[in-house]
Structure formats: structure tokens, C-alpha cells
């Protein structure tokens, strides 16, 4: 896939429309969000598939004349590279974990305005669930970034944010039985400018910032002694980077002994945050930047690892004094 080379740098979503076939299984799963999302843009432009729209402002037809295939991918690489060189006024810090019965994904994120934001109408915050490799029977087939559903809905949530502001959100979504697969799920958060007119210095539908993470990157499904699947969840510490303290969400589906510790980049133990029996479910531990002797550590990169009787997960964080 083209976007594999930009992993962690771009946040792709693949919408399926009701043409050339109204029987498209991806479209039929969620026609409301798909139609409303299409109408968010100019329907006269986005009236063919496959098409590509980047940064909410430009579309190209993969097999059309502007540009023609295979030159499309040359154009696409140039478009993506040009956007990567532009600094965003926003930063999104995102963490997520799955409920102990595997039926809900809980997403926490902070939107931080690090620079001046230019917009006419307050931008909207959106969240979408997609799947990295969902497959329907032919002729629909297999798609890597298959859009499934938007939350709270396709209208998003309007928000007002200025330079220096930091907004916190706690959202969640249901893992639809037989349709969503925890090991394939991707959560995407983005902030989009809803300016309705082409105003100098402003851009209609411009994406101000986005964040995307696979649920499986933050949780592991392992086989328990009884043959059943057991999930171990470990979220990204938030905030990250941090200056005073940071919180790490973790989950032990089956309960039991757990050890959550912080280490230096060389593997030296800094401190243990959890060491003992943990009840089944989700929990949180806080680290204040001090070692096990109560001494404040220096600025830098630190690693944390959750070890349980069923497996282990690790993460990375940055401490700034």
C-alpha cells in the first residue's frame, strides 16, 4: 500500500460510495455517514471513484485524466510530501484501550494549540473507526483502510480553540459484533476547518491536524491457559511529552499479578508503578518523573512496560523538566 511508507505521518481513510454498485458491502454497512461525508465536500467534484482528496481541499481521479494512472502516484507522493513540510498549529495526544469484555474502545485525546489558528467558523473534531484489512466476499473484496463509522456522528463536534489552549476529550465506540475486528481496528481523530468560502489566508474544509492509531498497537490478544483469548491493554502515556506528571492507562482482562515499571533508554529500572495483584478491567497509574528513591530524574526519553502472567506490552514517553 502507498501509505505504508508514511506510517505515523499521515492518517488515511477509505470511504466507499454507492457507485458503480449500490450493492457495495462497505457502503451498505454505513450509508448514512458515507453520504453525509460526501456532501460535506462539493458533490459536483467528488462524483467519481476511485478518487483522492488530501488535506480536505483537492481531489484527483486515480484512473481519470488529471493526472492519468500511473502518474497519479508520482503526483500523490509530491502532494503528501509537500503537506508534511507544513507545520500544523495543533498537536493531538491520543491514547486508547479496550474494555475487558472486548466490546468497547475507549479513546482519550488532548488537542493542544501550539500556534495561531486561522478560521472563520469554529472547526469540528471528528473520530472515525476503520479497519486495516477488512474483507467482504467478492466482488467487494479486501481494503486496507476501510472506513466503518464516525463518532459521535458525521457532523463531528464543534469546538473553539486558540493558541495556548488545550482541550481534553473522552470518547468511545462500540465494537459491532461480527462486523468490527479488534485486531484490525484503527481509530482516527482529526480537526477540520469548516470555513464555507474561499477567503484569502483561509481554506475551506482544511484538515488542521490528525492522529491515527491501531487498537492492536496498544493491546495484545494472547491465548490463555483455558484456550480463550485474553487481552492485555497498555495506552500511550498522556500527556506526552510531560513536565510534571503523566498517566498510563492499562488493562488486564483476566486479572492476576502485574508489574508496570519505568526504565531508562539503556534498560535501567527507574521505578515501579504497579507491582502485585490487579483486578480484571482497566486501570491507570501516574508517574511524576521521580525514581524509586524519590529523586527527580533528568529530561529525556523513558520507556514503560506492563508485564502480566499472560504477556507484556511496552510504550515510550518523553519527560521535560
Instruction: Please state the CA-atom Rg, rounded to the nearest Å.
Output: 21 Å
CATH superfamily of the largest domain: Immunoglobulins
Strands, count: 20
Q: What's the shape?
A: globular
The N- and C-terminal alpha carbons lie at a distance of 40 Å
The second-level CATH architecture of the largest domain is Sandwich
Q: Beta-sheet strand percentage?
A: 35-45%
Quickly count the helices.
3
Structural write-up:
The chain has 3 domains: 2-84, no CATH class; 90-219, Sandwich (Immunoglobulin-like), CATH 2.60.40; 220-319, Immunoglobulin-like. The strands form 6 sheets. Strands 5, 8, 9, 11 and 12 form a 5-stranded antiparallel β-sheet that branches. Strands 13-14-15-18 form a 4-stranded antiparallel β-sheet, with no helix packed on it. Strands 17-16-19-20 form a 4-stranded antiparallel β-sheet, with no helix packed on it. The chain is built from 3 helices and 20 strands. By secondary structure, it is mainly β. Helices cover 9% and strands 42% of the residues. The protein has helices spanning 25-29, 31-40, 71-84; strands at 51-54, 58-61, 90-98, 104-113, 124-131, 134-136, 141-143, 146-151, 157-158, 166-174, 185-192, 207-214, 219-223, 229-234, 246-252, 256-263, 269-278, 281-287, 300-308, 312-319. Mean pLDDT is 79; it is low at 197-201 and 219-229. The longest helix is centred in the N-terminal third of the chain and has 14 residues, at 71-84. A hairpin with a 5-residue loop joins strand 3 (90-98) and strand 4. It is globular, with a radius of gyration of 21 Å.
